[in-house]
Write a structure and sequence with these properties.
Layout (H helix, E strand, L loop, with lengths): L15 E2 L2 H10 L2 E7 L5 E11 L2 E7 L3 H7 L3 E14 L7 E12 L1 E2 L3 H12 L12 H6 E7 L3 E6 L17 E4 L21 H7 L2
Antiparallel strand pairs: 1-9, 2-3, 2-5, 3-4, 4-8, 5-6, 5-10, 6-9, 7-8
């Protein structure tokens, strides 16, 4: 159940969504999530990290020795946040300037992923679909040095703003320009590694991603 008392939106609640389809789409598009938790000595921390959804779970990974991983593995409750900014909203009044965005917040306790090697495949495929079959897979030493944690998608909410600015009725008569400046993210042309051996072309799975 995604909707709980602490995921209920109180500020502009009409923008709130709790369905899995919306949440899954937000998570699948996001590369980075911000993981917030309280350390064992009571200090707040927020760490940006690569995320990937695997069915009903959100995966994060890091060094087995990192402070974040140790705290989360020990049972520290976490809050994970992602945001996509889709546009700058310019209003006729300074007060009503805004942004069009899609965001999600999840709560819960993370556990070690049941299959670490498969989880790392999920991460690799999240970055570039089709990549896993073209690279060397992690060896035992690399698997030992890496931890993958899993957060069940059981408590969370999404918040979405779209469309033009909202204005005070009398401000529509002002001579100030109003509207939306769209913001998009695009992938550029691949840049070869300086140490790439000659004769190795950009593979189709990479080329297809940059063509989107």
């Amino acid at each position: 159940m995604l909707k709980t008392p602490r995921t209920k939106l109180r500020r502009v609640p009409q923008r709130g969504l709790h369905d899995r389809a919306t949440l899954d789409a937000l998570l699948d598009e996001a590369l980075i999530g911000h993981v917030a938790f309280v350390t064992h000595d009571g200090h707040p921390a927020v760490i940006p990290t690569l995320i990937a959804r695997d069915g009903d779970d959100l995966l994060i990974h890091g060094s087995s020795a990192s402070r974040t991983v140790r705290a989360l593995r020990a049972g520290a409750e976490a809050c994970v946040e992602v945001t996509h900014v889709d546009g700058i909203v310019l209003a006729r009044s300074a007060f009503h300037h805004s942004m069009n965005y899609r965001s999600a917040i999840l709560y819960g306790t993370l556990q070690p992923a049941a299959d670490k090697a498969r989880a790392l495949e999920v991460f690799t495929e999240k970055l570039v679909p089709g990549r896993w079959d073209h690279v060397r897979w992690p060896n035992a030493k690399e698997l030992k040095a890496t931890e993958v944690l899993s957060l069940p998608l059981t408590e969370g909410s999404a918040k979405v703003r779209t469309g033009p600015p909202g204005e005070e009725e009398e401000d529509y008569a002002l001579d100030a320009w109003a509207g939306v400046i769209p913001i998009t993210t695009r992938r550029g042309e691949p840049i070869p590694d300086p140490q790439l051996r000659s004769g190795i072309p950009v593979p189709d799975h990479v080329r297809s991603l940059t063509a989107r």
